[in-house]
């Protein structure tokens, strides 16, 4: 069953990691997919090739989500290419690990601009287009287990992910009357470019695996099913929800 047949899906931060997996997964479920990416040209084109190999049409649009103009351009390019916007997957994010007491101001500000401000601008631009179209839509934001728990070297990151989760709750209320559903997914430790260096430490990686009841860390592909579900009509009565996708890590307090 192709859950996104005939829909146009937009994905931010899709040249690698969760965004890339979600974009390809959307194409496998019948969607045309427009991806945003910041700088990795070859990876973006590889993602488009995979989208097309899955049977979808694809378009890559380069831009920095921290700039509000990127969001309006991204949505406009999607409309020009494929006629509208049905789903926005707001995924772009960074996490430059750093201690709290000497955290550089520019690191804090950049993380907030990309993770939270970028999500806000992208969700707003997509919602405006969906309202204008008059046929509803779905927005899925990639938050994090870090919205619920702290991290010693993530004091700049965890507030942004809590903010993304809160943004989905508030936009679910603001946009429900337009038939637009807004939900978030909260990944646990997923092996991506964000944590590649941090988890290069074998001891830390084994510790994180041991904390996970399913016994392994996540792969980007583990996020595809939950994201596609929330984006699809199977979740027609689901809005304002947050879905943990963490292998059970959050509940493992023992």
TrEMBL record:
Protein name stated in the entry: L-rhamnose 1-dehydrogenase (NAD(P)(+))
Top-level taxon of origin: Bacteria
The protein's Enzyme Commission number: 1.1.1.378
Signal peptide from the UniProt entry: none
Swiss-Prot/TrEMBL catalytic activity: L-rhamnofuranose + NAD(+) = L-rhamnono-1,4-lactone + NADH + H(+); L-rhamnofuranose + NADP(+) = L-rhamnono-1,4-lactone + NADPH + H(+)
GO molecular function, one term: quinone binding
Transmembrane segments: none
NCBIfam families, A to Z: PRK07231.1
Gene3D superfamilies named among the record's database cross-references: NAD(P)-binding Rossmann-like Domain (3.40.50.720)
One GO biological process term: rhamnose catabolic process
Pathway terms, separated by semicolons: Carbohydrate degradation; L-rhamnose degradation
InterPro entries attached to this UniProt entry: NAD(P)-bd_dom_sf, SDR_fam
Record carries keyword Oxidoreductase: yes
Keywords for this protein: NADP, Oxidoreductase, Rhamnose metabolism
Family from the record: Belongs to the short-chain dehydrogenases/reductases (SDR) family.
Keyword Membrane attached: no
């Amino acid at each position: 069953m192709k859950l996104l047949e005939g829909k146009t899906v937009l994905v931010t931060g899709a040249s690698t990691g969760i965004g890339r997996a979600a974009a390809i997964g959307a194409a496998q479920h019948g969607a045309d997919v427009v991806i945003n990416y910041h700088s990795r040209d070859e990876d973006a084109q590889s993602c488009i090739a995979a989208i097309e190999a899955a049977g979808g049409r694809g378009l890559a649009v380069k831009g920095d989500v921290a700039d509000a103009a990127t969001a309006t351009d991204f949505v406009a390019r999607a409309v020009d290419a494929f006629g509208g916007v049905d789903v926005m997957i707001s995924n772009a994010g960074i996490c430059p690990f750093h201690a709290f007491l000497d955290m550089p101001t520019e690191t804090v500000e950049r993380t907030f601009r990309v993770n939270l401000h970028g999500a806000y601008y992208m969700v707003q631009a997509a919602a405006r287009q969906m309202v204008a179209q008059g046929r509803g839509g779905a927005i899925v934001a990639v938050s994090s287990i870090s919205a619920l728990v702290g991290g010693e070297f993530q004091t700049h990151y965890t507030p942004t992910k809590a903010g993304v989760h809160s943004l989905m709750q508030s936009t679910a209320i603001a946009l429900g009357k337009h038939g637009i559903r807004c939900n978030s997914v909260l990944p646990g430790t997923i092996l991506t470019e964000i944590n590649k260096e941090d988890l290069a430490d074998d001891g830390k990686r084994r510790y994180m695996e041991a904390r996970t009841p399913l016994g392994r860390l996540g792969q980007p592909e583990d996020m595809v099913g939950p994201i596609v579900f929330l984006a699809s009509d199977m979740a027609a009565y689901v809005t304002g929800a947050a879905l943990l996708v963490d292998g059970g890590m959050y509940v493992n307090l023992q």
